[in-house]
What does this fold into?
Amino acid sequence: MSSGPGFLALAPHRSGTASLLSDAARRRGMEVTVLPADGVPERYRGRGDGHYYGGPRFAARVADPLGVALLEPHDGWLDTLPGTFTGRSVSRVPLSEARRRSGPIFVKPPTDKSFPAAVHPDGASLPQPPPGSGDPLVQISEVVVWEDEFRLFLLDGEIRTGSRYAVHGRLDAAPLAGHPQEAAVRAFAYRLTEECGDTLPGAVVVDVGRMRHPGRDVEWAVVEANMAWFSTVYAADPDRALDVVLRSAGPGGLVRERDLAFRRNRPTAPASEG
It folds into this structure.
C-alpha cells in the first residue's frame, strides 16, 4: 500500500458535490481521478490506497478492482428504528404488494434507486419492477409534512458537518453551523447515536428533520440514512464531509471490524451507469 494520502476515484457522471470533494481531496494532497466509463485503468488497480465517490451502479463495477470497501446502512434500517425516532409507520414490502395499496403513500425504491422516492396517490401509480429484478422490496410510510430537513455526515457517531437541505419539501440549503435549529439537531442526533449508533456504519449520512402530522405538534424524526459515498454535500463543509466519504469507501484492508457487517455485497453481474 502507498504511504501517501492515496487517491479519490470519481464516477464519470460528475456533480457539484464531486467537484467540492475533489477540491477538498487535493487540498490534503490526494490524487483525484475521474474514471473512464469502461472501468478502472491498470495504474489504479491493486494499489490499496483508493477511495470512491459516485453512483452505486458504477460502483458495482469498479469497487473490486479499486480494492475499495463500500459501507452503507442496511436497507431495512429505518423500519427497525424505535418509533421515538421515526415518528411514523415505516415498513418494507414487495413492490407487488405496494402496488395494491390505497393512497396516498410515500414510497422509497430499493437501493438501486430504480425510481424516485415520492408521495404516490396510490400503489397503482408505482412502476413495474425492472426486467429481471423479481419482486424487490420497497419502503412505504405514511405521508407526513416535513417542516425542514437536515443532512448530517456522521463519523463514529460524531457530526463532522451538516447542512439544512430542504424547507417544506423544497431545496433550500444552509450550513448547520450557526443555524437556529443547530442545537436541536445535535441533541436529536446525539440521542439517536447513543441508542442506535451500533445499527449504522461508522461513516454514514443521516437525514433528520422536523415532522408534522395533521393536527399534531411538530416533532423531530429521522428521514433516512444513506451511504456517504453517494450523498450530496449541499451547504456542509466539504473538507469535513470528505472525512466521512473517505472512510465510507476506502481501502478494503482498513475496514474496522464493527463495519464489516455494513460492507456492500459485491454484485456478480456488471452494470453500467451514465
